[in-house]
Write the structure tokens for this entry.
Amino acid sequence: MHNTSTRSNRITASRVILTVLSVFVLVLMANFAALVLLKSAENGNRGYWRIGAMWNLLGRMEEPTDWLVLGDSSGFRGFDPAVWQDATGEKAINLSATVQVVSAGYAMLLKGYIERFGAPKAVIVIHTYDAWYREVDTLAVGQTPLWGIWENRSAGLFSIVQSAKILLTKIFPIYYSDTSLPSLVLRPYTIRFTANPLTIATNRARVADNGFEPAPGTETDSVVSDLAGHLRFVSRVAGRNVELSDVNKAALHQLGELSDQYEFDIYLVNGPIHTNLNDDRDFQNHYSKLRQALTEEIGPFKRLHLLPGEPKTFETHQLFNSIDHVTGESAESYTRWLADRVAR
């Protein structure tokens, strides 16, 4: 007589294993599909797209540059390498990404550049005033290609928990963004592809060879709304001391150590800013305390400099969609202003 109970249990166990494996494969396929969609869709999360694009630009560079420009979105909208070369006679490349990676992202890119080409002549770090006390967005850092994260480029910058989250975003890109993917799936008719989805495994987003991404014009309502938000913010924090975040402190120290080790100068520069915000009393108080905190933090490093003076200001019609994103035309003014203060 056959033992049907044992056979039934064996079949059930096999089916359970098969089911689990099938679900796992489906999850991997869904994540890969999400990765393809988000990497190839022009209207996904553009800030995250820019992070990967800058690493890809660094990866395809064929020769070194004189000036390496790092920073957040105020930098990639504001610094035009062509104008810089016209003003100084020296080459520059703009690898500015987005504020979500904070200065940890700048340190990682600088390490990647040095490993490929050695030390640049100098580095400019362009940042918005409210970047220095932010914590890192692990989803944003997770858009860095694996070759940019490995080989100790991120060593000493992130906590164990942050590092684990960054790794998970590489394994499960379906969590790339909590807003981009649903909007693309629910409104597929709005998708504009920047690359063939079948070749997206190369992870090569399009960007100009010099990294500059000029804004098309002014979105007045967005600028006015953003200005109001920043005025409320500086009013709320008026009187408080400015405390830099741990990840920014760690990154500043690594930038300083690299500049001393390889003997090149790094200039910390505030990005463009709306005139009305710069003229606000609460902002001036807050900005002064921020500069004091930065000065104390970089004090031990002789080749890490904070550019003196007030930031370059712009009116509403000269800005794109926020208080620190200039239009393409205004980028020339900002770049020449910077050249006069840094390169001469």
The two ends are 96 Å apart (CA to CA).
